[in-house]
Every structure is written in structure tokens, then in C-alpha cells.
Q: What sequence folds into this?
């Protein structure tokens, strides 16, 4: 029997890493699988514990200011009922240090694994 770390109702998608903001963990050209979240589909505010559970994980975000562009960043802490995110490579990352917190509806998923190196 195989136990999956997510519900079968959950969608799993792939994303290619572009750039070096998450280096050395993820490099340019790596392919990652991520579990999608439903927070972007709900108008209700998320439960605080759901945001806290994301701290330390790599998340996929789509900022309101950049529709259609997915980014991967590490959730560092919860601020103002939102996430503060940063790239692992602070010298090559544009993140919450530049544009502030990420609102829950901008979180598209959580990275599960790298399945192909770039």
C-alpha cells in the first residue's frame, strides 16, 4: 500500500525553475511537482493554522501584480494574516523584501519534490 501525502481530490502540477533565486536547493531548469491549494478560490479568510503550516515550505505563488507568472519561494513567517516569502538565494531573489507579504489567495501550491534536474 502506498500512502500519498495529499488527498486524491488534490491536483498535482509541474513547474520548471527559471533563474537562481532558489539556489542551491533548486537550480535553473529543474522540474518540480507541486500540490495545488484551494485558497485562491475561496473568498473566506484562511485559518491561521493553515498559513503557519506553510512556514518553512517552498510555495508556488502568483502575485496579483503579475498575473500568469508563477514563482517559487520559501514561506518564512506569517505576518498580517499573510505569508512573508523569500528566495533561498537572497542575492538573486525578488521577494517579500521587495514587495511585501503574499496574501493567501496568491498561494497556488506547495512544492512536493524535484523530479528532474536541469
A:
Amino acid at each position: 500500500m502506498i500512502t500519498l501525502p495529499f488527498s486524491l481530490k488534490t491536483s498535482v502540477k509541474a513547474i520548471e525553475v527559471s533563474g537562481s533565486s532558489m539556489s542551491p536547493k533548486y537550480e535553473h531548469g529543474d522540474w518540480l511537482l507541486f500540490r495545488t491549494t484551494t485558497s485562491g478560490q475561496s473568498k473566506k479568510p484562511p485559518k491561521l493554522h493553515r498559513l503557519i503550516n506553510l512556514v518553512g515550505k517552498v510555495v508556488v505563488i502568483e502575485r496579483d501584480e503579475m498575473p500568469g507568472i508563477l514563482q517559487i519561494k520559501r514561506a518564512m513567517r506569517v505576518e498580517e494574516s499573510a505569508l512573508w516569502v523569500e528566495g533561498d538565494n537572497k542575492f538573486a531573489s525578488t521577494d517579500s523584501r521587495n514587495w511585501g507579504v503574499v496574501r493567501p489567495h496568491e498561494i497556488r501550491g506547495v512544492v512536493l519534490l524535484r523530479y528532474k534536474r536541469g
